[in-house]
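User: What would this chain look like folded?
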Amino acid sequence: MDLISHHSLIASGALQFAFDKATPEGKMTVGALVILSFFSWSVIVTKSRQLYLAAKLTRKFMAAYAATGNPLEFPRSGAQFDRVPAFQVYCRAANEVERLLRIAPAANEPGRMCAPAFEAVKAVLEQSAGTEAIALERGMIVLSTAVAGGPFLGLLGTVWGVMETFAGIAHANAATLTAMAPGVAGALIATVVGLLVAIPAMFAYNFMVTTIRNLTQELDAFATRYAAQVSLLYVERATAA
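Assistant: Here's the prediction, encoded as structure tokens.
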């Protein structure tokens, strides 16, 4: 335990030393990375909670919906499934089905809609599924920016700092390790901070992209299933010539 504490003190002291020796440009780069890290962690926390609730409640909604035998019988009021993308798709599609049953009924089959009206239902399903998929992906651009831009921004600060260090050594005509070490250490802190920003964002991004992909596939499967049920129960049957 003492050894771990000793190494922690050395690491924190090295970071403090490097930051103190960094150039103003390097400190500005570190500041920009800290701001990027703040936004990145904000997205990680809020998005993790959103996706966790969406995945958990989607399973409950699918089970509850499967227990109903009619695509219009599932209740559309209440807050139990408000955060479920598939529930939002269901509500919009069910409202459209009820509307079309009133304004575009089949000629000889009461309680059914005409075949052209069903195309409007499918369009609502596709549009709603797309809207919910976009909502699931909202904020992911911040994580992808942190993953891709963090290391490059840190590298820019490091290269700039090293350039100024060598320029100062050349101007002073004193190429010694003592003269070089503080400047190089101050330059490298930008890369260290850039990696500290990018690594957590990378793991979170990969995990969230997989979760969003699974939810989107479930969303598309539900839309297809709902369209098939509506077609079976509420669209006019083809008559023999």
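The two ends are 87 Å apart (CA to CA). If you want, I can go into more detail on any region.
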